[in-house]
């Protein structure tokens, strides 16, 4: 099987009308795993999940926002995925999945990264720690809030230490930075465009899904 993964920085789930619009789109896209970043919600209960996903077979886990900043909601179809374990950190929600159809076990982590360099180092440590917990193929995705190369940010002319540390993290964990379909950049404020969102996978994960096509929603 090839699970359909949807990743989306929704920039807040506080408004009922916005949740209804997201629900309509998720129903059309029919994702097996859905990761929503920047929920801006301190708590998420079943009523909020049902307002986003009408499926009664939905499983879910979440990272609370800090004030009105951040937050991650991970949802999955329990008819497709069984969760064996989960780990919620300061910046991420990680789960170990078992495919119902073929029994294949793999791990997924959804991330919303910080904007401060010292906190970014905590993110790399957190993800490396979770990665060491489960000896299975990995898929890490989300809004990391940082680019890797100067070409990924319009108007940026030199690499920063934080960018180098991001690349080192990917190299140390032997992850593959998969290309995204649908545009060179994933974020813009109208003046600056950047690639902040990525899917990072282990070679074993990529080998299991060699024809995977990934699209990050704006």
TrEMBL record:
This is Endonuclease/exonuclease/phosphatase domain-containing protein. GO terms for molecular function: DNA-(apurinic or apyrimidinic site) endonuclease activity; double-stranded DNA 3'-5' DNA exonuclease activity; metal ion binding; phosphoric diester hydrolase activity. The keyword Manganese applies. Its cofactor is Mg(2+); Mn(2+). The keyword Membrane does not apply. Keywords: Hydrolase, Magnesium, Manganese, Metal-binding. One of its GO terms (biological process) is base-excision repair. Residues 6-212 form the Endonuclease/exonuclease/phosphatase domain. One of its GO terms (cellular component) is nucleus. It comes from Carya illinoinensis. Probably binds two magnesium or manganese ions per subunit. Mg(2+) binds at residues 9, 38. Pfam families: Exo_endo_phos.
